[in-house]
Design goal:
The protein is of the alpha/beta class and 182 residues long. The protein has a single domain, classed as Rossmann fold (3-Layer(aba) Sandwich), CATH 3.40.50. The strands form two sheets. It has a six-stranded mixed sheet, sandwiched between helices. A three-stranded antiparallel sheet has the order 1-9-8, with helices on one face. Helix 1 crosses helix 2. The longest helix has 18 residues. The structure holds inosinic acid and magnesium ion. Inosinic acid binds next to strand 3, strand 5, helix 3 and strand 8.
Amino acid sequence: MYKYNSEEIEKVLIDSGRIENKVRELARQIDSDYADKRLVMVGVLKGSFIFFGDLVRNITIPAEIEFMKVSSYGAGTVSSGNLKISLDIMRDDLSDCDLLIVEDIIDSGRTLSKLASFLKERAGTVRTCTLLDKPERREVDFMPDYCGFVVPDEFVVGYGLDYREKYRTLPDVCVLSPKVYS
Ligand code: IMP
Ligand code: MG
């Protein structure tokens, strides 16, 4: 068991074993839904990098891999609502591709809804998969197609998710102590 600093980490919310089981379950569903499609999995950097790596290794159908880097958060914990694309998919034609955008967490919903609309203009089909969803915080009407866990309105870190670039390498999804950011 990983040793957490209790000054920074309030509690483990979802442990690595539960995440592993959920990732397998999501992969089975994606395998069956995309069996006769041209699956292109799009990892949203950086937050989804661990989830994305685990998910693609559990997919058994052929899949292509792309990454995008987008941000709507600055350095703090409040969404600005502006989508900034700093890495785009470098392909001329996505019209025969079935994109599955893989994100770490949906909060206000702004990042993923804007990214999905942006890609829908270029790709055959676009769906979204998120490890975590905080529906209480939603500000736009948006529902992911695949979701690992619904989480309460608390700031979480670990398994790829950060607070100011820290805590991404923690093995579990943890609640960050409010002392760290207040
Ligand atoms: P949204 O546009 O408000 O849905 O914000 C989604 C993005 O905000 C995610 O991709 C994360 O990078 C970041 N984010 C939202 N909530 C959290 C959290 O609890 N921990 C870490 N990052 C978060
Ligand atoms: Mg993110």
